[in-house]
Amino acid sequence: MADITEFVVEPGRQDIVMIRAFDAPPEVVFRVVTDPELIPRWWGPHSLATRVDRMEVEVGGRWRFVNVDERGREFFFSGVYHAVVPSERYVRTWEFEGMPGDVALETVTLTAADGGTRYVAHSVHPSVEARDAIIRGGGPRGGRESMDRLAALLADL
């Protein structure tokens, strides 16, 4: 499977689609992306440490992750789970607390493909401008690094 994270970011649209193939079955990928003990090992860019403040992977459950940079500055991300189908998908809101009110709806779908998993994260933002701010702020770089770290973790398991 390719070690490439693909992004679909079309002009004038409010969404971002991130696609990656992993050499692990969907049930393993789902377990890793929903395990609060494993999140710090893959979530976020290489340059930031991640702490899980809260992670209730159930309908109505809340989540909150904290990225910490080398100077100790903290960046908070949070939301609520709206759907959870083990080994198949989850739907949650996603908000960078540094930009309150810019709440995206993210659907992560896991599909068995070529002996592994096709991972698709589709995020819909409240406006094109909000989506573009995520792009300008390094969202794709952070997403690629997270997916690379996730692939390495899955290979180690």
TrEMBL record:
One Pfam family this sequence matches: AHSA1
Origin superkingdom: Bacteria
Sequence ranges assigned to domain Activator of Hsp90 ATPase homologue 1/2-like C-terminal in this UniProt record: 23-154
Family designation: Belongs to the AHA1 family.
Official protein name in the record: SRPBCC family protein
